[in-house]
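Structure (tokenized):
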């Protein structure tokens, strides 16, 4: 994803819910959304009812920001989801869940998804024993994810005290001692990390 230089907490306020872009801070009283859950701007409240197009757009934008995906990537994922069998919306969300940066975060190896992306792009993550610096890589069943480098491994273990409150989903497993994660099975719709109405996204992207 292109680098985000603005205050990311405004993204949560714009979408009306926490997107957990600041890691542990989002679970504390310091969270900007907790302090001020209104949309950013001088006049945060708008009059009238949001249009159907507006609801579809906001749903798409929320998912994009949550997973850290820009428009060009989103379009590629949508085209791939359309080619797969089954529900296009569910296929799209499952593709997002299988991204390496998302899996690294879910395994508690990263404090947040942006932090997980940083670890990957800096070459601190290995997949199946080989360095991988592509955050968008789609993982498959039985793929192994592990930390590369003793210093980073030590820092990750120290962060476990912060991240322990996050449950690792059932389709993943983690050996905390050796910092090796495993994709035990592919995720299904119930494993998706964000509450969303994927049909609105499909309707918007199909136009």
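Design, position by position:
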């Amino acid at each position: 994803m292109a680098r985000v230089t603005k205050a990311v907490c405004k993204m949560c306020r714009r979408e009306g819910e926490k997107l957990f872009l600041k890691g542990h801070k989002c679970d504390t009283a310091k969270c900007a959304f907790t302090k001020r859950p209104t949309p950013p701007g001088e006049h945060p409240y708008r009059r009238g009812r949001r249009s159907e197009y507006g609801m579809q757009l906001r749903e798409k934008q929320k998912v994009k920001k949550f997973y850290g995906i820009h428009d060009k990537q989103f379009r590629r994922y949508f085209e791939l989801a359309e080619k797969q069998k089954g529900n296009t919306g569910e296929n799209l969300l499952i593709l997002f869940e299988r991204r390496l940066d998302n899996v690294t975060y879910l395994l508690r190896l990263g404090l947040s998804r942006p932090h997980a992306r940083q670890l990957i792009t800096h070459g601190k993550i290995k997949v199946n024993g080989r360095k991988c610096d592509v955050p968008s890589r789609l993982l498959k069943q039985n793929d192994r994810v592990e930390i590369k480098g003793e210093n980073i491994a030590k820092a990750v273990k120290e962060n476990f005290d912060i991240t322990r409150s996050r449950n690792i989903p059932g389709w993943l497993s983690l050996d905390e001692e050796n910092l090796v994660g495993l994709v035990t099975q592919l995720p299904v719709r119930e494993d998706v990390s964000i509450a969303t109405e994927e049909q609105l996204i499909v309707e918007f992207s199909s136009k």
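Reviewer-requested clarification: The chain has nine helices and five strands. The two ends are 23 Å apart (CA to CA).
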